[in-house]
What we know:
A hairpin with a 3-residue loop joins strand 1 and strand 2 (124-125). The radius of gyration is 19 Å and the shape is elongated. It has helices at residues 12-36, 42-70, 83-113, 134-169, and strands at residues 119-120, 124-125. The protein is 64% helix and 2% strand. The protein is an all-alpha fold. The chain contains four helices and two strands, in the order H-H-H-E-E-H. The chain has a two-stranded antiparallel sheet.
Amino acid sequence: MQLKNDESRYGVVAQLFHWAIVALIIVQFILANRADNLPLGPAKIGVLAQHKSFGITILALVLLRLIWRWLNVVPGEPKDVPTWQRIAARFSHVALYALLLITPIVGWLMSSARNFPVSWFGLVTLPDFIRPSKPAYEFLHQTHELLAGTLFWLALLHVAAALKHHFWDKDDVLRRMLPVKLTQETTRS
Ligand code: HEM
Ligand code: HEM
C-alpha cells in the first residue's frame, strides 16, 4: 500500500493518523469519565494527568496530520454524491479538525488557570500561557466540556455518514480510509 494519498484513496500515513486519533479520543472520554467518578485525591489527579498527556498527544498528532494533508491530494467524493452532501462532508471535516485542535488547547489553558501545569507523561512540562484564576478556570472548564460534547456528537454523525456510504450507497468512501482493496474507481469532485 502506498504511503501518500492519491485521487481515489487515503494512503497509509493519513490512515494511521486518522485511526490513532480515533483511538486516543476514545481513551480521552474513558479517562474523563473515570476521573469524574473519583473523589478529589491522588487517584483522580493521576487519571487526569494521563488525560492531559493523551490530550496533548492528540494536539501534536492533529498538527502533524494537517501538515501531511497539506502535502497530499485529498480524495474527492464519488461523482454521484449530491452537492448538499459534499458541502456537509466538507463542513463536518473542517469542524472536526477545529474541535480536535481547540478542545486540547482549552484543556491546557484550563489546567494553567487551575494552577496545575501540564506535564506530558512526566517527561516535559509545558509552559503556562495564562495565570491562575478561578473565574478563568470555570469558564474554560465549561468551554472544554461543551467542545468535548460537540466533538462526541459530531463524531457520531460522521460515523453514521461513513456507515451510510458503505452499507446504503455501497461506495468506496469507508474502504478508502481502511487498508483494504477498493471495489470501484472513485472519481474526484
Ligand atoms: C481532544 C482531546 C480532549 C478531549 C476529547 C477531552 C475531553 C474531556 C471531557 C469529556 C472531560 C469531562 C468534562 C467534565 O465533565 O468535567 C474533560 C475534563 C478535563 N480535561 Fe479534557 N479532553 C481533551 C484534552 C485535554 C487536554 C489536552 C487537557 C489538558 C492539558 C485536558 C484537561 C482536562 C481536565 C483538567 C479535565 C477535568 C476538569 C475538572 O473537572 O476540573 N483535556 N476532558
Ligand atoms: C473520534 C472519532 C473521529 C474523528 C474525530 C474523525 C475525523 C475525521 C476527519 C477530520 C476526517 C477528514 C479527513 C481528511 O480529509 O483530511 C475523517 C475522514 C474519514 N473518517 Fe473519520 N473520524 C472519526 C471516526 C471515524 C470512524 C469511527 C469511522 C468509520 C466508521 C470514520 C470514517 C471516516 C472515513 C471513511 C473518512 C473519509 C471520508 C471521505 O473520504 O470523505 N471516522 N475523519
